[in-house]
Design brief:
Layout lengths: L1 E3 L1 H5 L5 E11 L8 E12 L4 E14 L6 E15 L18 E2 L5 E3 L1 H11 L38 H7 L1
Parallel strand pairs: 5-6
Antiparallel strand pairs: 1-7, 2-3, 3-4, 4-5
């Protein structure tokens, strides 16, 4: 996911390049396995200050259900829009200082690395609590059995007697 944009930086504002994306990259999270397969498109557009990236990326993230803890695969369809700024002025060869220290920067050879922008987009697009299915019953709070596979047969725990007065009022 590296693109040399030196020639694009020499072109006028509005010039663009289009790429198809189909890569297997190292997973940003060890729990997801060793690699992620990314597919999609990448559009690079010359701006007055740098390169605007617009990428449409699809991938599958392995995860666990937030209720029953069974494995689930979460499909993600990401739209990544970021501006990358040159670290070196193409005409003078001098270092360029960025006003924003958190801005995405091209390396010294004018290569745009899409990896960090995609990683951040994956983290913000993921479900907070993914479910294996919308009607997942989850785990029994007493014995921990998966209630999707079989009904729980454990004895139900008596409720705290301090709540009895409220229960009687609402009935």
């Amino acid at each position: 996911m590296h693109y040399n944009v030196a020639q694009l930086l020499k072109e006028p504002t509005g010039s663009s390049r289009h790429f198809d994306l189909s890569e297997t990259v190292a997973s940003p999270e060890p729990d997801w396995g060793a690699e992620l397969t990314l597919t999609g498109t990448v559009e690079l557009v010359r701006t007055p200050d740098g390169i605007l990236l617009e990428a449409h990326v699809q991938t599958l993230i392995p995860d666990v259900c937030g209720r029953c803890l069974e494995p689930v695969t979460e499909p993600l369809d990401l739209v990544v829009e970021e501006e990358f700024y040159p670290a070196i002025d193409l005409n003078t060869g001098h270092a360029v200082t960025q006003a924003d220290p958190d801005a995405f920067v091209l390396d010294q050879r004018h290569v745009l690395d899409l990896t960090e922008a995609v990683r951040q987009s994956i983290w913000t697009a993921r479900e907070i609590q993914p479910l294996c299915r919308p009607d997942c019953k989850g785990l029994c709070p007493t014995c921990g059995a998966n209630q999707n596979t079989a009904p729980c047969t454990c004895a139900k725990v008596a409720t705290d007697p301090r709540w009895d007065r409220l229960r009687r009022r609402s009935a």
